[in-house]
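Input record (one chain):
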Amino acid sequence: MPLHIATAPGRPDHPNEDFAAATATAAVLLDGVSAPVGRDNGCSHGVSWHTRRVGALLLAGLDAGADPRAALAEAITTVASLHAGTCDLGVQETPSATVVAARIGADRLEYLVLSDSVLLTEADGGVRVLADTRLDDLRPRVAPGSVHTWRNVPGGFWTAGSDPRAAEEAVVGTVPPGPFLAMTDGASRAVEVFGDLDWEGAFALVRERGPGALVRRVRELESNDPACRRFPRGKVRDDVTALWWSP
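The corresponding structure, as predicted from the sequence alone:
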């Protein structure tokens, strides 16, 4: 089972808030969501702490055969219980994460996608993009700088924070088994921000040279635009993670 994961923090002085892991039957990739600059997330543990625990519990649930939404809801509930007594989980910016999860079967691939991390699979000689587009759909309709106020509220977009209802909002489904590529938005910015690759190109690059090649490509693109003038983005360098699996 060729499985490869590549990840790198956006800043050397800050923890990597991404998480990716796999077993023989399941894989998960999460991207921690930081609070806007100047806002307190109400948690003394931090985003990395939250993301790693939700990811590990989700992977365990999938590996044990749980329904993907049920596994995510249980992971969210359990992690919330670990710090509800010490942290203010009612703060909207409480640590949360985007999620991609996959369970590999002999006759199908089950998937779950929540928020703006992306899953790519093969389809009819091309690439199928499995994505939750609500955040992208929301941005043109709300005031600049206010997108975060729509997190985990009806009509907005959802991430895996402290409310297990987010699991019911995830995009789920099944596709034929085959190679897949999961990416955080730090990795997919090679396509969605810089336009250096299309989805097929990103898939082909990772298939041929591994996910580390995509991480290096993103870092090069970021370094070529350090002031974010040509390619406006919230962070000069983001945490970047890619997970590749093939039968």
